[in-house]
Backbone:
């Protein structure tokens, strides 16, 4: 069933969520307290360094990496010791994220048109053994074009999609009667009592 999903925050996480929702046929309304120039959030300013496990670049540079090694590194750093309590989900999240980074992430990013610089960095390297703290092998992959190169395909995908609308702060052209930053009561008001605001503005061409 097609749904209209409201995403608060036009940073990278919001843009990726919007992209995936649009791909599966849903409508997306994206809200952000910042103007259109700030779309992409922190990721725009970032180095675009991405954690990948057993990537094609690592293999090319003969860096031997695997799901098991990366998980061992993560667990060695996190030292989860409350597995009967609050660490349960943290450990599950770590396992799921490393599974994604080892088996899906590179092909997913490449399917979005993202490329990598032929450089492999060694970030978050606390120790140098697999049992020590931090990454025991280089896993820091630099997006071609750094942060702007990382957000660009997601921004373009969303802005060119007919089922995407974004309401961003835009000086005098801001038409919705909400305060910025948005609060939950604002949103309830915005979504339920001001349906015309759903067409308030956007944005193709503003980015
Ligand atoms: C200089 C720099 C370099 C970095 N380098 C790297 C790197 O190399 N590798 C790496 O992995 N990470 C890096 N990071 C971190 C990474 O960029 C961030 O973790 C990531 O971009 C966060 O994305 P996000 O979408 O979760 O949040 P954000 O980018 O913070 O986006 C959140 C959005 O929500 C909006 N918002 C917040 N509150 C409200 C509200 N109440 N109402 C409406 N809108 C709201 C904000 O305006 C913003 O647009 C770097 C960060 C910086 C600043």
Residues:
């Amino acid at each position: 069933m097609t749904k209209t999903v409201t995403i608060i925050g036009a940073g990278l996480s919001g843009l990726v969520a919007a992209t995936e929702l649009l791909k599966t046929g849903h409508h997306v309304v994206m809200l952000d307290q910042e103007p259109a120039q700030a779309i992409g959030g922190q990721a725009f300013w970032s180095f675009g360094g991405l954690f990948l496990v057993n990537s094609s670049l690592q293999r090319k540079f003969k860096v031997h990496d695997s799901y098991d090694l990366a998980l061992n590194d993560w667990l060695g750093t996190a030292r989860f010791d409350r597995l009967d309590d609050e660490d349960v989900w943290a450990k599950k999240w770590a396992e799921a994220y490393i599974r994604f980074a080892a088996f899906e992430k590179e092909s997913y990013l490449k399917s979005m048109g993202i490329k990598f610089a032929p450089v492999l960095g060694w970030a978050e390297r606390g120790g140098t053994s697999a049992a020590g703290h931090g990454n025991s092998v280089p896993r820091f992959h630099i997006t071609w074009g750094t942060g702007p190169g990382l957000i660009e395909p997601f921004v373009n995908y969303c802005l060119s999609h007919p089922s995407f609308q974004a309401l961003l702060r835009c000086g005098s052209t801001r038409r919705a009667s909400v305060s910025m930053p948005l609060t939950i009561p604002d949103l309830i008001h915005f979504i339920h009592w001001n349906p015309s605001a759903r067409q308030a503005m956007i944005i193709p061409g503003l980015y």
